[in-house]
């Protein structure tokens, strides 16, 4: 009974801590645009939209067990969908969001078919080829995409009743979409689809024996992931107001994957941390070395991977585990009698020798015993 009560108490305390953390994070997110400068607010906005793209990539790589080096192409598809609708058809900004999401979802369904027969490096190569050939294709479709010059569209303007500046309004709009996307990803992972994805990731054969349809869930993983990347691309068009093929090279896909790995695979907070890494580390690298920012960026990735192999999201757990192991080791040494290296042990007691051992001879030794090999004695001797 006491064990059940303790478990309920710890669960209640954990939920309370999670609620307080969520409230503090929400308060900080709402108050951020009123505290920082416009450029810093723009950077925070970019972090949020990159987090949307990484949340989709996390569904595929972290929870689905597949790999993709072509998510920059889905990002570009969503961005160009919004740009074409705003430039050619003069639609509203909000109308572009569901269209970009639906279009990239269908594109992900079609692209998920090769995932049924490919895996590992072969699947990575196919997805990378998609990211490589899309920018030249966008340049060829000049009548629609504007070719190499790209398209310039209007940014998301704040309404008069809001009383907000342009950067603040865009921040709140992107924040609202990001919150909805992260909540959707969280609920999706806790549903039957999410449990099926985890089963496929851990063991495909066992998942198939349990009744999981591998083809369906692998394709859906690509579709959901592409949809989130398309939403992030649409938000990019809202914020930047300009798209061009050179903005979506294959380097973007590799950067997104690196950001996810640094942030933490299969973690709900990993996309946010990875998005901050993708946004701020290149600028820090540029400040450190204007001649070779890529070298600094690569060295920082290596340093983070050595310090936190499971990503930044798993770093607090690793620190807590190390502290717990150290405390357990110290307690064990304290309970061990005569341990010289036990922390907190009394040096005086360690210096004092213990009681001497008492030796009990079995038989008294003969003092005048003949040496071995000596001749026998006579009576006279």
Structure, explained:
The structure is a single chain. This protein is an all-alpha fold and 381 residues long. The chain has a domain at 43-249. The chain contains 15 helices and 2 strands. The chain has a two-stranded antiparallel sheet with strand order 1-2. It is globular and about 85 Å long. Mean pLDDT is 82; it is low at 341-375. It comes from Streptomyces glomeratus. It is a multi-pass membrane protein. It is found in: Cell membrane. Residues 330-381 are annotated as: Disordered.
Radius of gyration: 33 Å
- Beta-strand percentage range: under 5%
Mean pLDDT across residues: 82
Overall number of strands = 2
Per DSSP, the total helix count is 15
The shape is globular
Helical content (DSSP H or I, runs of 4+): 55-70%
> Which strand order does the major sheet show?
1-2
Main location: membrane
Transmembrane segments: 41-61, 68-86, 92-113, 120-138, 169-189, 220-244, 250-280, 292-315
Subcellular location: Cell membrane
Membrane topology: Multi-pass membrane protein
Keyphrases for this structure?
381 residues, mainly alpha, two-stranded antiparallel sheet, globular
Q: What's the arrangement of secondary structure elements?
A:
Layout: H1 2-35, H2 38-63, H3 71-88, H4 93-111, H5 121-140, H6 142-145, E1 151-152, H7 166-189, H8 192-202, H9 204-209, H10 214-240, E2 242-243, H11 250-263, H12 270-288, H13 293-307, H14 315-335, H15 347-351
Antiparallel strand pairs: 1-2
Concise structural overview:
By secondary structure, the chain is an all-alpha fold.
């Amino acid at each position: 009974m006491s064990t059940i009560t303790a478990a309920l108490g710890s669960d209640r305390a954990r939920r309370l801590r999670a609620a307080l953390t969520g409230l503090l994070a929400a308060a900080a997110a709402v108050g951020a645009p009123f505290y920082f400068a416009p450029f810093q607010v723009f950077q925070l906005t970019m972090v949020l939209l990159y987090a949307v793209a990484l949340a989709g990539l996390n569904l595929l790589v972290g929870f689905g067990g597949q790999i993709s080096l072509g998510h920059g192409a889905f990002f570009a598809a969503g961005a160009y969908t919004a740009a074409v609708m705003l430039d050619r058809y003069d639609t509203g900004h909000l109308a572009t969001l569901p269209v970009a999401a639906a279009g990239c979802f269908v594109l992900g369904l079609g692209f998920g078919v090769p995932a049924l027969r490919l895996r590992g490096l072969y699947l990575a190569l196919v997805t990378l080829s998609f990211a490589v050939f899309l920018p030249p294709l966008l340049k060829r479709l000049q009548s629609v995409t504007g070719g190499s010059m790209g398209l310039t569209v209007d940014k998301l303007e704040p309404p008069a009743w809001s009383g907000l500046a342009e950067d603040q309004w865009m921040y709140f709009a992107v924040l609202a979409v990001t919150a909805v996307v992260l909540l959707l990803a969280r609920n999706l992972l806790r549903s039957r689809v999410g449990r099926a994805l985890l089963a496929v990731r851990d063991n495909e054969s066992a998942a198939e024996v349990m009744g999981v349809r591998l083809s369906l869930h692998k394709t859906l993983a690509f579709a959901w992931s592409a949809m989130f990347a398309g939403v992030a691309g649409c938000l990019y068009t809202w914020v930047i107001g300009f798209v061009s093929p050179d903005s979506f090279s294959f380097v973007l896909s590799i950067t997104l994957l690196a950001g996810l790995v640094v942030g933490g695979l299969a973690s709900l907070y990993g996309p946010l941390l990875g998005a901050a890494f993708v946004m701020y580390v290149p600028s820090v690298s540029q400040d450190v070395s204007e001649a070779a920012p890529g070298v600094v960026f690569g060295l920082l990735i290596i340093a983070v991977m050595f310090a936190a192999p499971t990503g930044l999201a798993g770093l607090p757990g690793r620190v807590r585990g190390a502290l717990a192991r150290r405390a357990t080791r110290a307690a064990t040494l304290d309970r061990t009698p005569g341990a010289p290296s036990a922390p907190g042990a009394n040096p005086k007691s360690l210096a004092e020798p213990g009681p001497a051992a008492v030796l009990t001879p079995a038989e008294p030794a003969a003092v005048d015993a003949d040496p071995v090999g000596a001749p026998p004695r006579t009576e006279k001797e």
